[in-house]
Sequence to fold (601 residues):
Amino acid sequence: MNSEKNEREPLFSFKNRKLLLNPLNKDNPITIQVLGICSALAVTAKLEPAFVMALSVIAVLAISNVIISLLRNGIPPRIRIIVQLVVIASLVILVDQFLKAFVFDVSKQLSVFVGLIITNCIIMGRLEAFAMGNKPWPAFLDGMGNAFGYGWILIVVAFFRELLGSGTIWGYPVFDKLGLYDVGYKNNGFMILPPMALIIVGIIIWIQRARNKDLIEEK
Amino acid sequence: MKALRNFLDKIKPQFEKGAKFGIFGSSFEAFESFLFVSNKVTSKGSHIRDSIDMKRTMSVVVIALIPALLFGMWNVGYQHFLSLGEHADFWATFWFGFLKVFPIIVVCYVVGLGIEFAFAQVRGHEVNEGFLVTGMIIPLILPPEIPLWMVAVATAFAVIIGKEVFGGTGMNILNPALTARTFLFFAYPSNMSGDKVWIAEKADAFSGATPLGDALVGNIDKIPSPLEMFIGNIPGSIGETSVIAILIGAFILLYTGAGSWRIMFSVVLGGLVMGWIFNLCAINEYMQIPAWEHLIMGGFAFGAVFMATDPVTASQTTKGKIIYGFLIGLLAVLIRVINPAYPEGMMLAILFMNVFAPLIDHYVIEANIKKRLKRAKKLIKI
Fold:
Protein backbone atom coordinates (compact mmCIF):
# COMPACT_ATOMS: atom_id res chain seq x y z
CA MET A 1 0.00 0.00 0.00
CA ASN A 2 1.67 3.22 -1.04
CA SER A 3 0.54 6.60 0.13
CA GLU A 4 -0.99 7.51 -3.22
CA LYS A 5 -3.63 4.85 -2.88
CA ASN A 6 -4.57 5.99 0.59
CA GLU A 7 -5.37 9.42 -0.72
CA ARG A 8 -7.78 8.34 -3.45
CA GLU A 9 -11.26 9.69 -3.08
CA PRO A 10 -14.07 7.59 -1.59
CA LEU A 11 -16.36 5.75 -4.00
CA PHE A 12 -19.27 8.09 -3.40
CA SER A 13 -17.56 11.41 -2.88
CA PHE A 14 -19.49 14.61 -3.34
CA LYS A 15 -18.22 14.90 -6.91
CA ASN A 16 -19.20 11.34 -7.76
CA ARG A 17 -22.63 11.71 -6.22
CA LYS A 18 -23.18 14.75 -8.37
CA LEU A 19 -22.22 12.74 -11.47
CA LEU A 20 -24.93 10.29 -10.61
CA LEU A 21 -27.67 12.62 -9.39
CA ASN A 22 -27.37 15.76 -11.53
CA PRO A 23 -28.59 14.11 -14.74
CA LEU A 24 -31.73 13.03 -12.92
CA ASN A 25 -32.89 16.58 -12.52
CA LYS A 26 -30.84 19.70 -13.17
CA ASP A 27 -28.85 18.27 -16.04
CA ASN A 28 -31.40 15.87 -17.47
CA PRO A 29 -30.47 14.61 -20.94
CA ILE A 30 -34.04 14.85 -22.25
CA THR A 31 -35.57 17.88 -20.60
CA ILE A 32 -32.51 20.11 -20.26
CA GLN A 33 -30.07 18.98 -22.94
CA VAL A 34 -32.93 17.91 -25.24
CA LEU A 35 -31.14 14.78 -26.44
CA GLY A 36 -32.66 11.41 -27.22
CA ILE A 37 -36.04 12.95 -28.00
CA CYS A 38 -36.74 10.69 -30.98
CA SER A 39 -36.94 7.49 -28.98
CA ALA A 40 -38.76 9.28 -26.16
CA LEU A 41 -41.55 10.04 -28.66
CA ALA A 42 -41.55 6.68 -30.37
CA VAL A 43 -41.57 4.06 -27.63
CA THR A 44 -43.66 5.74 -24.93
CA ALA A 45 -47.16 4.83 -26.07
CA LYS A 46 -47.15 1.97 -23.52
CA LEU A 47 -45.40 1.54 -20.20
CA GLU A 48 -43.84 -1.86 -20.88
CA PRO A 49 -41.79 -1.01 -24.00
CA ALA A 50 -40.74 2.27 -22.41
CA PHE A 51 -39.48 0.40 -19.36
CA VAL A 52 -37.57 -2.12 -21.46
CA MET A 53 -36.16 0.67 -23.59
CA ALA A 54 -34.99 2.49 -20.46
CA LEU A 55 -33.29 -0.68 -19.16
CA SER A 56 -31.60 -1.24 -22.53
CA VAL A 57 -30.25 2.28 -22.62
CA ILE A 58 -29.04 1.98 -19.01
CA ALA A 59 -27.15 -1.20 -19.87
CA VAL A 60 -25.65 0.11 -23.09
CA LEU A 61 -24.68 3.51 -21.75
CA ALA A 62 -23.15 2.32 -18.46
CA ILE A 63 -21.13 -0.48 -20.04
CA SER A 64 -19.96 1.48 -23.07
CA ASN A 65 -18.93 4.38 -20.84
CA VAL A 66 -16.75 2.00 -18.78
CA ILE A 67 -15.25 0.32 -21.85
CA ILE A 68 -14.39 3.59 -23.57
CA SER A 69 -12.99 4.95 -20.33
CA LEU A 70 -10.71 1.90 -20.03
CA LEU A 71 -9.59 2.28 -23.65
CA ARG A 72 -9.35 6.07 -23.55
CA ASN A 73 -5.56 6.27 -23.50
CA GLY A 74 -5.14 3.78 -26.33
CA ILE A 75 -7.64 5.30 -28.77
CA PRO A 76 -6.01 7.41 -31.50
CA PRO A 77 -7.93 10.71 -31.47
CA ARG A 78 -8.52 10.72 -35.21
CA ILE A 79 -10.52 7.51 -35.24
CA ARG A 80 -12.14 7.81 -31.81
CA ILE A 81 -15.70 8.15 -33.16
CA ILE A 82 -15.36 4.91 -35.08
CA VAL A 83 -14.04 3.09 -32.01
CA GLN A 84 -16.92 4.46 -29.93
CA LEU A 85 -19.40 3.35 -32.54
CA VAL A 86 -17.96 -0.15 -32.66
CA VAL A 87 -18.32 -0.47 -28.89
CA ILE A 88 -21.88 0.88 -28.87
CA ALA A 89 -22.94 -1.21 -31.85
CA SER A 90 -21.66 -4.44 -30.32
CA LEU A 91 -23.45 -3.71 -27.06
CA VAL A 92 -26.67 -2.82 -28.85
CA ILE A 93 -26.54 -6.07 -30.81
CA LEU A 94 -26.09 -7.95 -27.54
CA VAL A 95 -29.07 -6.16 -26.00
CA ASP A 96 -31.14 -6.77 -29.11
CA GLN A 97 -30.39 -10.49 -29.11
CA PHE A 98 -31.09 -10.66 -25.39
CA LEU A 99 -34.49 -9.02 -25.83
CA LYS A 100 -35.34 -11.27 -28.75
CA ALA A 101 -34.47 -14.31 -26.69
CA PHE A 102 -36.32 -13.44 -23.48
CA VAL A 103 -39.03 -10.83 -24.15
CA PHE A 104 -39.85 -11.35 -27.80
CA ASP A 105 -43.19 -9.48 -27.69
CA VAL A 106 -41.67 -6.32 -26.35
CA SER A 107 -38.75 -6.65 -28.73
CA LYS A 108 -41.26 -6.72 -31.58
CA GLN A 109 -43.04 -3.62 -30.27
CA LEU A 110 -39.77 -1.74 -30.00
CA SER A 111 -38.80 -2.95 -33.51
CA VAL A 112 -36.15 -0.69 -35.01
CA PHE A 113 -35.82 1.47 -31.94
CA VAL A 114 -33.55 -1.02 -30.17
CA GLY A 115 -31.20 -0.87 -33.13
CA LEU A 116 -31.52 2.89 -33.14
CA ILE A 117 -30.05 3.09 -29.62
CA ILE A 118 -26.78 3.28 -31.57
CA THR A 119 -27.77 6.69 -32.85
CA ASN A 120 -29.15 7.88 -29.51
CA CYS A 121 -27.46 11.24 -29.07
CA ILE A 122 -27.13 10.75 -25.32
CA ILE A 123 -24.78 7.78 -25.68
CA MET A 124 -22.41 9.34 -28.21
CA GLY A 125 -22.57 12.57 -26.24
CA ARG A 126 -21.54 10.96 -22.93
CA LEU A 127 -18.76 8.92 -24.52
CA GLU A 128 -17.35 11.98 -26.25
CA ALA A 129 -17.85 14.42 -23.41
CA PHE A 130 -17.11 12.29 -20.37
CA ALA A 131 -15.74 8.78 -20.87
CA MET A 132 -12.89 9.93 -23.14
CA GLY A 133 -11.45 12.02 -20.32
CA ASN A 134 -12.30 10.24 -17.07
CA LYS A 135 -11.51 7.10 -15.08
CA PRO A 136 -13.80 4.05 -15.32
CA TRP A 137 -15.64 4.49 -11.99
CA PRO A 138 -16.75 8.09 -12.56
CA ALA A 139 -17.54 7.15 -16.15
CA PHE A 140 -19.75 4.33 -14.88
CA LEU A 141 -21.57 6.66 -12.51
CA ASP A 142 -22.01 9.26 -15.23
CA GLY A 143 -23.41 6.62 -17.58
CA MET A 144 -25.82 5.33 -14.94
CA GLY A 145 -26.92 8.85 -14.02
CA ASN A 146 -27.64 9.94 -17.57
CA ALA A 147 -29.36 6.69 -18.50
CA PHE A 148 -31.57 6.91 -15.40
CA GLY A 149 -32.31 10.54 -16.19
CA TYR A 150 -33.41 9.40 -19.65
CA GLY A 151 -35.29 6.43 -18.22
CA TRP A 152 -37.45 8.19 -15.68
CA ILE A 153 -38.67 10.72 -18.21
CA LEU A 154 -39.54 7.86 -20.56
CA ILE A 155 -41.49 6.08 -17.85
CA VAL A 156 -43.38 9.18 -16.71
CA VAL A 157 -44.34 10.03 -20.28
CA ALA A 158 -45.35 6.44 -20.98
CA PHE A 159 -47.40 6.27 -17.76
CA PHE A 160 -49.58 9.23 -18.76
CA ARG A 161 -49.81 8.20 -22.39
CA GLU A 162 -50.88 4.67 -21.56
CA LEU A 163 -53.28 5.72 -18.82
CA LEU A 164 -55.03 8.44 -20.82
CA GLY A 165 -54.59 6.90 -24.27
CA SER A 166 -55.47 3.27 -23.59
CA GLY A 167 -56.94 3.43 -20.09
CA THR A 168 -54.47 0.88 -18.74
CA ILE A 169 -51.36 0.76 -16.53
CA TRP A 170 -48.89 -1.92 -17.63
CA GLY A 171 -51.73 -3.60 -19.49
CA TYR A 172 -54.07 -3.60 -16.46
CA PRO A 173 -57.39 -1.96 -17.43
CA VAL A 174 -57.66 0.62 -14.64
CA PHE A 175 -60.38 2.79 -16.12
CA ASP A 176 -62.42 -0.25 -17.06
CA LYS A 177 -62.30 -1.56 -13.47
CA LEU A 178 -63.21 1.87 -12.14
CA GLY A 179 -66.23 1.84 -14.40
CA LEU A 180 -65.38 5.09 -16.14
CA TYR A 181 -66.47 3.83 -19.55
CA ASP A 182 -69.99 3.26 -18.27
CA VAL A 183 -70.40 6.94 -17.45
CA GLY A 184 -69.37 8.03 -20.93
CA TYR A 185 -65.60 8.35 -20.62
CA LYS A 186 -63.59 7.66 -23.75
CA ASN A 187 -59.91 7.05 -24.30
CA ASN A 188 -58.01 9.96 -25.72
CA GLY A 189 -56.75 8.80 -29.12
CA PHE A 190 -54.45 11.78 -29.39
CA MET A 191 -52.38 10.41 -26.50
CA ILE A 192 -51.26 7.43 -28.58
CA LEU A 193 -49.93 9.67 -31.35
CA PRO A 194 -46.31 10.88 -31.04
CA PRO A 195 -47.14 14.63 -30.97
CA MET A 196 -48.73 14.17 -27.57
CA ALA A 197 -45.48 12.70 -26.21
CA LEU A 198 -43.77 15.89 -27.25
CA ILE A 199 -46.41 17.94 -25.43
CA ILE A 200 -46.04 15.82 -22.27
CA VAL A 201 -42.25 16.22 -22.37
CA GLY A 202 -42.90 19.94 -22.77
CA ILE A 203 -45.13 19.96 -19.70
CA ILE A 204 -42.44 18.12 -17.68
CA ILE A 205 -39.91 20.76 -18.78
CA TRP A 206 -42.39 23.48 -17.76
CA ILE A 207 -42.86 22.02 -14.26
CA GLN A 208 -39.14 21.44 -13.86
CA ARG A 209 -38.25 24.99 -14.80
CA ALA A 210 -40.97 26.46 -12.63
CA ARG A 211 -39.54 24.59 -9.63
CA ASN A 212 -35.83 25.19 -10.31
CA LYS A 213 -35.26 28.90 -10.42
CA ASP A 214 -31.64 28.52 -11.59
CA LEU A 215 -32.82 26.85 -14.81
CA ILE A 216 -34.70 29.96 -15.91
CA GLU A 217 -32.75 32.03 -18.40
CA GLU A 218 -32.25 35.68 -17.59
CA LYS A 219 -34.27 38.03 -19.69
CA MET B 1 -74.90 52.94 -14.10
CA LYS B 2 -73.76 55.74 -11.84
CA ALA B 3 -74.23 53.65 -8.73
CA LEU B 4 -72.17 50.84 -10.24
CA ARG B 5 -69.41 53.26 -11.15
CA ASN B 6 -69.39 54.66 -7.62
CA PHE B 7 -69.29 51.18 -6.15
CA LEU B 8 -66.34 50.23 -8.35
CA ASP B 9 -64.51 53.42 -7.45
CA LYS B 10 -65.11 52.73 -3.78
CA ILE B 11 -63.67 49.24 -3.80
CA LYS B 12 -60.88 50.00 -6.26
CA PRO B 13 -58.18 50.93 -3.73
CA GLN B 14 -58.51 47.53 -2.08
CA PHE B 15 -57.40 45.89 -5.32
CA GLU B 16 -54.32 47.99 -5.89
CA LYS B 17 -50.87 46.49 -5.54
CA GLY B 18 -50.03 45.63 -1.96
CA ALA B 19 -53.57 46.26 -0.73
CA LYS B 20 -55.83 43.68 0.90
CA PHE B 21 -57.06 42.02 -2.30
CA GLY B 22 -54.03 43.03 -4.38
CA ILE B 23 -53.67 39.50 -5.70
CA PHE B 24 -57.04 39.80 -7.45
CA GLY B 25 -56.03 43.07 -9.08
CA SER B 26 -56.15 41.70 -12.59
CA SER B 27 -59.62 40.21 -12.09
CA PHE B 28 -60.90 43.56 -10.88
CA GLU B 29 -59.33 45.33 -13.82
CA ALA B 30 -60.91 42.85 -16.20
CA PHE B 31 -64.41 43.37 -14.82
CA GLU B 32 -64.03 47.11 -14.62
CA SER B 33 -62.93 47.50 -18.21
CA PHE B 34 -65.58 45.02 -19.31
CA LEU B 35 -68.30 47.19 -17.77
CA PHE B 36 -66.87 50.62 -18.54
CA VAL B 37 -64.65 52.17 -21.14
CA SER B 38 -61.13 52.25 -19.78
CA ASN B 39 -60.22 55.60 -18.29
CA LYS B 40 -56.52 54.87 -18.14
CA VAL B 41 -54.32 57.85 -18.92
CA THR B 42 -50.79 57.54 -20.18
CA SER B 43 -48.45 59.33 -17.82
CA LYS B 44 -45.20 59.28 -19.80
CA GLY B 45 -44.52 60.20 -23.41
CA SER B 46 -47.10 61.27 -25.93
CA HIS B 47 -49.18 58.21 -26.64
CA ILE B 48 -52.64 58.43 -28.02
CA ARG B 49 -55.16 56.21 -26.29
CA ASP B 50 -58.23 55.11 -28.18
CA SER B 51 -61.23 53.99 -26.19
CA ILE B 52 -61.56 51.11 -28.67
CA ASP B 53 -59.36 48.69 -26.76
CA MET B 54 -59.06 45.00 -27.40
CA LYS B 55 -62.23 44.22 -25.46
CA ARG B 56 -64.32 46.42 -27.74
CA THR B 57 -62.80 44.87 -30.86
CA MET B 58 -63.48 41.42 -29.51
CA SER B 59 -67.07 42.41 -28.73
CA VAL B 60 -67.54 43.33 -32.38
CA VAL B 61 -66.40 39.88 -33.42
CA VAL B 62 -68.77 38.27 -30.90
CA ILE B 63 -71.63 40.35 -32.33
CA ALA B 64 -70.65 39.26 -35.82
CA LEU B 65 -70.83 35.64 -34.69
CA ILE B 66 -74.38 35.96 -33.37
CA PRO B 67 -76.22 35.43 -36.69
CA ALA B 68 -74.33 32.18 -37.24
CA LEU B 69 -75.00 31.17 -33.63
CA LEU B 70 -78.74 31.83 -33.80
CA PHE B 71 -79.08 30.09 -37.13
CA GLY B 72 -77.02 27.20 -35.77
CA MET B 73 -79.39 26.79 -32.82
CA TRP B 74 -82.40 26.73 -35.10
CA ASN B 75 -80.71 24.32 -37.48
CA VAL B 76 -79.81 21.87 -34.70
CA GLY B 77 -83.49 21.66 -33.85
CA TYR B 78 -84.55 21.60 -37.50
CA GLN B 79 -82.25 18.68 -38.34
CA HIS B 80 -83.43 16.79 -35.28
CA PHE B 81 -87.10 17.03 -36.15
CA LEU B 82 -86.38 16.41 -39.83
CA SER B 83 -84.57 13.15 -39.04
CA LEU B 84 -87.49 12.02 -36.87
CA GLY B 85 -89.90 12.95 -39.61
CA GLU B 86 -91.83 15.18 -37.24
CA HIS B 87 -92.86 18.72 -37.77
CA ALA B 88 -92.39 21.37 -35.09
CA ASP B 89 -93.09 25.08 -35.15
CA PHE B 90 -90.32 27.65 -35.24
CA TRP B 91 -90.04 28.23 -31.50
CA ALA B 92 -90.06 24.56 -30.56
CA THR B 93 -87.33 23.97 -33.12
CA PHE B 94 -85.26 26.85 -31.86
CA TRP B 95 -85.79 25.88 -28.22
CA PHE B 96 -84.56 22.32 -28.85
CA GLY B 97 -81.42 23.67 -30.52
CA PHE B 98 -80.93 26.25 -27.78
CA LEU B 99 -80.99 23.54 -25.12
CA LYS B 100 -78.38 21.60 -27.09
CA VAL B 101 -76.03 24.47 -27.88
CA PHE B 102 -76.25 26.69 -24.82
CA PRO B 103 -74.62 24.18 -22.41
CA ILE B 104 -71.65 23.87 -24.79
CA ILE B 105 -71.19 27.64 -24.76
CA VAL B 106 -71.44 27.78 -20.97
CA VAL B 107 -68.89 24.98 -20.51
CA CYS B 108 -66.52 26.70 -22.94
CA TYR B 109 -66.66 30.05 -21.18
CA VAL B 110 -66.50 28.67 -17.64
CA VAL B 111 -63.49 26.44 -18.32
CA GLY B 112 -61.68 28.86 -20.59
CA LEU B 113 -62.21 32.00 -18.54
CA GLY B 114 -61.47 30.08 -15.34
CA ILE B 115 -58.06 29.12 -16.66
CA GLU B 116 -57.44 32.60 -18.07
CA PHE B 117 -58.23 34.24 -14.72
CA ALA B 118 -56.09 31.73 -12.83
CA PHE B 119 -53.10 32.41 -15.10
CA ALA B 120 -53.61 36.14 -14.89
CA GLN B 121 -53.65 36.01 -11.07
CA VAL B 122 -50.53 33.83 -10.81
CA ARG B 123 -48.54 35.72 -13.39
CA GLY B 124 -49.78 39.10 -12.26
CA HIS B 125 -50.84 40.38 -15.65
CA GLU B 126 -54.18 41.61 -16.89
CA VAL B 127 -56.83 39.12 -17.92
CA ASN B 128 -56.62 38.59 -21.66
CA GLU B 129 -59.71 39.39 -23.64
CA GLY B 130 -58.99 36.97 -26.46
CA PHE B 131 -61.07 34.27 -24.90
CA LEU B 132 -64.30 36.20 -25.36
CA VAL B 133 -64.14 35.33 -29.04
CA THR B 134 -62.49 31.92 -28.70
CA GLY B 135 -65.18 30.80 -26.26
CA MET B 136 -67.84 31.74 -28.78
CA ILE B 137 -66.13 30.18 -31.79
CA ILE B 138 -65.38 26.81 -30.18
CA PRO B 139 -69.08 25.81 -29.82
CA LEU B 140 -69.81 26.94 -33.37
CA ILE B 141 -67.25 24.57 -34.92
CA LEU B 142 -68.29 21.48 -32.97
CA PRO B 143 -70.95 18.92 -33.85
CA PRO B 144 -74.12 19.29 -31.73
CA GLU B 145 -73.79 15.80 -30.24
CA ILE B 146 -70.40 16.44 -28.61
CA PRO B 147 -70.28 15.37 -24.92
CA LEU B 148 -69.76 18.33 -22.61
CA TRP B 149 -66.75 16.87 -20.79
CA MET B 150 -64.95 16.61 -24.10
CA VAL B 151 -65.66 20.30 -24.71
CA ALA B 152 -64.18 21.07 -21.29
CA VAL B 153 -61.02 18.99 -21.89
CA ALA B 154 -60.48 20.47 -25.35
CA THR B 155 -61.02 24.03 -24.14
CA ALA B 156 -58.55 23.53 -21.30
CA PHE B 157 -56.02 22.06 -23.72
CA ALA B 158 -56.47 24.90 -26.19
CA VAL B 159 -56.12 27.62 -23.57
CA ILE B 160 -53.15 26.10 -21.73
CA ILE B 161 -51.13 24.42 -24.48
CA GLY B 162 -52.35 26.53 -27.39
CA LYS B 163 -52.13 29.90 -25.73
CA GLU B 164 -50.83 30.29 -22.18
CA VAL B 165 -47.54 28.43 -22.69
CA PHE B 166 -46.70 30.97 -25.38
CA GLY B 167 -47.49 33.87 -23.05
CA GLY B 168 -51.23 34.44 -23.48
CA THR B 169 -53.32 36.39 -25.96
CA GLY B 170 -51.25 38.00 -28.66
CA MET B 171 -48.37 35.57 -28.33
CA ASN B 172 -50.02 32.37 -29.53
CA ILE B 173 -48.90 30.78 -32.79
CA LEU B 174 -52.02 28.71 -33.40
CA ASN B 175 -55.62 29.78 -33.38
CA PRO B 176 -56.91 28.55 -29.98
CA ALA B 177 -60.40 27.65 -31.20
CA LEU B 178 -58.96 25.50 -33.96
CA THR B 179 -56.50 23.98 -31.51
CA ALA B 180 -59.49 22.83 -29.47
CA ARG B 181 -61.18 21.37 -32.52
CA THR B 182 -58.03 19.65 -33.74
CA PHE B 183 -57.51 18.17 -30.28
CA LEU B 184 -61.01 16.70 -30.34
CA PHE B 185 -60.62 15.54 -33.92
CA PHE B 186 -57.54 13.47 -33.13
CA ALA B 187 -58.46 12.49 -29.58
CA TYR B 188 -62.06 11.39 -30.07
CA PRO B 189 -62.48 10.77 -33.80
CA SER B 190 -65.72 8.86 -33.36
CA ASN B 191 -67.35 11.94 -31.82
CA MET B 192 -65.99 14.35 -34.40
CA SER B 193 -66.43 12.68 -37.78
CA GLY B 194 -68.57 10.20 -39.62
CA ASP B 195 -72.29 10.55 -40.19
CA LYS B 196 -73.58 9.88 -36.65
CA VAL B 197 -72.65 13.09 -34.87
CA TRP B 198 -73.99 15.95 -36.95
CA ILE B 199 -77.65 15.67 -35.99
CA ALA B 200 -78.72 15.82 -32.36
CA GLU B 201 -80.64 12.73 -31.20
CA LYS B 202 -81.08 11.55 -34.72
CA ALA B 203 -83.25 8.66 -35.85
CA ASP B 204 -81.05 5.70 -36.80
CA ALA B 205 -82.40 5.18 -40.29
CA PHE B 206 -81.76 8.77 -41.33
CA SER B 207 -78.47 9.52 -43.07
CA GLY B 208 -76.74 12.34 -41.24
CA ALA B 209 -73.71 12.76 -43.48
CA THR B 210 -72.50 16.26 -44.21
CA PRO B 211 -72.10 17.33 -47.84
CA LEU B 212 -68.35 16.90 -47.51
CA GLY B 213 -68.75 13.42 -46.08
CA ASP B 214 -71.00 12.46 -48.98
CA ALA B 215 -68.66 13.98 -51.53
CA LEU B 216 -65.64 12.15 -50.19
CA VAL B 217 -67.17 8.69 -50.45
CA GLY B 218 -68.35 9.44 -53.97
CA ASN B 219 -72.05 10.15 -53.35
CA ILE B 220 -71.86 13.31 -55.41
CA ASP B 221 -75.55 13.13 -56.32
CA LYS B 222 -76.43 13.19 -52.61
CA ILE B 223 -74.90 16.63 -52.03
CA PRO B 224 -77.65 19.13 -51.22
CA SER B 225 -78.44 21.77 -53.80
CA PRO B 226 -76.30 24.93 -53.74
CA LEU B 227 -79.30 26.88 -52.47
CA GLU B 228 -79.65 24.60 -49.44
CA MET B 229 -75.95 24.85 -48.70
CA PHE B 230 -76.17 28.61 -49.03
CA ILE B 231 -79.11 28.89 -46.64
CA GLY B 232 -77.61 26.25 -44.39
CA ASN B 233 -80.43 23.89 -43.42
CA ILE B 234 -78.10 20.91 -43.74
CA PRO B 235 -76.20 18.77 -41.19
CA GLY B 236 -72.82 20.07 -40.06
CA SER B 237 -70.99 21.78 -37.24
CA ILE B 238 -73.28 24.09 -35.27
CA GLY B 239 -72.32 27.43 -36.77
CA GLU B 240 -70.72 26.55 -40.08
CA THR B 241 -73.67 25.56 -42.22
CA SER B 242 -75.33 28.83 -43.15
CA VAL B 243 -73.40 30.96 -45.61
CA ILE B 244 -76.01 33.73 -45.31
CA ALA B 245 -75.48 34.08 -41.54
CA ILE B 246 -71.72 34.04 -42.04
CA LEU B 247 -71.96 36.71 -44.73
CA ILE B 248 -73.86 38.95 -42.31
CA GLY B 249 -71.03 38.41 -39.84
CA ALA B 250 -68.47 39.14 -42.55
CA PHE B 251 -70.26 42.38 -43.36
CA ILE B 252 -70.14 43.46 -39.70
CA LEU B 253 -66.43 42.59 -39.46
CA LEU B 254 -65.57 44.44 -42.66
CA TYR B 255 -67.75 47.47 -41.90
CA THR B 256 -66.16 47.96 -38.48
CA GLY B 257 -62.70 47.06 -39.73
CA ALA B 258 -62.29 44.26 -37.19
CA GLY B 259 -61.50 41.69 -39.89
CA SER B 260 -59.12 42.00 -42.81
CA TRP B 261 -60.82 42.05 -46.23
CA ARG B 262 -57.53 41.06 -47.85
CA ILE B 263 -57.46 37.76 -46.02
CA MET B 264 -61.12 36.94 -46.67
CA PHE B 265 -60.77 37.85 -50.33
CA SER B 266 -57.59 35.87 -50.88
CA VAL B 267 -58.91 32.78 -49.08
CA VAL B 268 -61.88 32.76 -51.43
CA LEU B 269 -59.57 33.32 -54.39
CA GLY B 270 -57.29 30.47 -53.29
CA GLY B 271 -60.25 28.11 -52.96
CA LEU B 272 -61.54 29.08 -56.40
CA VAL B 273 -58.14 28.60 -58.04
CA MET B 274 -57.64 25.16 -56.53
CA GLY B 275 -61.20 24.12 -57.40
CA TRP B 276 -60.61 25.32 -60.94
CA ILE B 277 -57.34 23.35 -61.22
CA PHE B 278 -59.22 20.24 -60.11
CA ASN B 279 -61.88 20.93 -62.73
CA LEU B 280 -59.21 21.02 -65.42
CA CYS B 281 -57.65 17.69 -64.55
CA ALA B 282 -60.67 15.94 -63.04
CA ILE B 283 -60.28 12.20 -62.67
CA ASN B 284 -63.23 11.59 -60.38
CA GLU B 285 -66.62 13.11 -59.73
CA TYR B 286 -65.51 15.06 -56.66
CA MET B 287 -62.97 16.95 -58.74
CA GLN B 288 -65.64 17.90 -61.23
CA ILE B 289 -67.89 19.88 -58.93
CA PRO B 290 -67.81 23.57 -59.80
CA ALA B 291 -65.07 25.51 -58.01
CA TRP B 292 -67.50 27.99 -56.43
CA GLU B 293 -69.41 25.18 -54.78
CA HIS B 294 -66.39 24.52 -52.56
CA LEU B 295 -66.89 27.98 -51.07
CA ILE B 296 -70.30 27.17 -49.65
CA MET B 297 -69.56 23.59 -48.57
CA GLY B 298 -68.48 22.67 -45.05
CA GLY B 299 -66.56 25.13 -42.97
CA PHE B 300 -64.91 27.04 -45.78
CA ALA B 301 -66.93 30.23 -45.38
CA PHE B 302 -66.82 30.16 -41.59
CA GLY B 303 -63.07 29.59 -41.55
CA ALA B 304 -62.42 32.30 -44.11
CA VAL B 305 -64.44 34.92 -42.29
CA PHE B 306 -63.86 34.23 -38.60
CA MET B 307 -60.73 32.15 -38.19
CA ALA B 308 -58.31 32.95 -40.97
CA THR B 309 -58.74 36.62 -40.06
CA ASP B 310 -57.71 36.15 -36.40
CA PRO B 311 -55.34 39.14 -36.08
CA VAL B 312 -52.94 37.33 -33.75
CA THR B 313 -52.21 34.26 -35.81
CA ALA B 314 -52.54 35.70 -39.32
CA SER B 315 -49.78 37.45 -41.23
CA GLN B 316 -49.35 41.10 -40.28
CA THR B 317 -48.01 42.60 -43.49
CA THR B 318 -50.30 43.64 -46.33
CA LYS B 319 -48.65 41.42 -48.92
CA GLY B 320 -48.23 38.67 -46.38
CA LYS B 321 -51.98 38.65 -45.67
CA ILE B 322 -52.74 38.01 -49.32
CA ILE B 323 -50.22 35.16 -49.61
CA TYR B 324 -51.40 33.69 -46.29
CA GLY B 325 -55.06 33.77 -47.27
CA PHE B 326 -54.47 32.47 -50.76
CA LEU B 327 -52.57 29.45 -49.47
CA ILE B 328 -55.28 28.72 -46.89
CA GLY B 329 -57.93 28.54 -49.60
CA LEU B 330 -55.68 26.46 -51.82
CA LEU B 331 -54.75 23.97 -49.12
CA ALA B 332 -58.28 23.68 -47.75
CA VAL B 333 -59.70 22.52 -51.08
CA LEU B 334 -56.64 20.39 -51.79
CA ILE B 335 -56.87 18.50 -48.48
CA ARG B 336 -60.62 18.08 -48.71
CA VAL B 337 -60.58 16.59 -52.22
CA ILE B 338 -57.37 14.56 -52.16
CA ASN B 339 -57.00 13.25 -48.60
CA PRO B 340 -59.60 10.66 -47.64
CA ALA B 341 -58.74 10.87 -43.92
CA TYR B 342 -59.82 14.50 -43.60
CA PRO B 343 -63.22 15.32 -45.11
CA GLU B 344 -62.81 18.98 -44.11
CA GLY B 345 -59.54 20.65 -44.97
CA MET B 346 -60.23 24.13 -43.63
CA MET B 347 -59.18 23.38 -40.05
CA LEU B 348 -55.80 21.92 -40.98
CA ALA B 349 -55.19 24.47 -43.73
CA ILE B 350 -55.63 27.41 -41.34
CA LEU B 351 -53.48 25.83 -38.62
CA PHE B 352 -50.80 25.01 -41.16
CA MET B 353 -50.69 28.57 -42.45
CA ASN B 354 -50.78 29.91 -38.86
CA VAL B 355 -47.43 28.22 -38.41
CA PHE B 356 -46.11 29.75 -41.62
CA ALA B 357 -47.47 33.27 -41.06
CA PRO B 358 -44.35 34.61 -39.27
CA LEU B 359 -42.15 33.21 -42.05
CA ILE B 360 -44.25 34.91 -44.72
CA ASP B 361 -44.01 38.19 -42.82
CA HIS B 362 -40.27 37.81 -42.48
CA TYR B 363 -39.74 37.45 -46.20
CA VAL B 364 -42.17 40.23 -47.08
CA ILE B 365 -40.26 42.59 -44.79
CA GLU B 366 -36.88 41.43 -46.09
CA ALA B 367 -38.02 42.03 -49.67
CA ASN B 368 -39.20 45.50 -48.75
CA ILE B 369 -35.89 46.34 -47.10
CA LYS B 370 -34.00 45.15 -50.17
CA LYS B 371 -36.19 47.19 -52.48
CA ARG B 372 -35.69 50.37 -50.48
CA LEU B 373 -31.98 49.76 -50.15
CA LYS B 374 -31.72 49.48 -53.90
CA ARG B 375 -33.56 52.75 -54.31
CA ALA B 376 -31.36 54.46 -51.75
CA LYS B 377 -28.21 53.24 -53.47
CA LYS B 378 -29.46 54.59 -56.77
CA LEU B 379 -30.03 58.00 -55.19
CA ILE B 380 -26.53 58.06 -53.72
CA LYS B 381 -24.98 57.31 -57.11
CA ILE B 382 -26.72 60.27 -58.69
Notes: Residues 1-5 of chain A have pLDDT under 50 and may be disordered. Chain A has one domain: 33-215. The two ends of chain A are 55 Å apart (CA to CA). Chain A is about 65% helix and 0% strand.
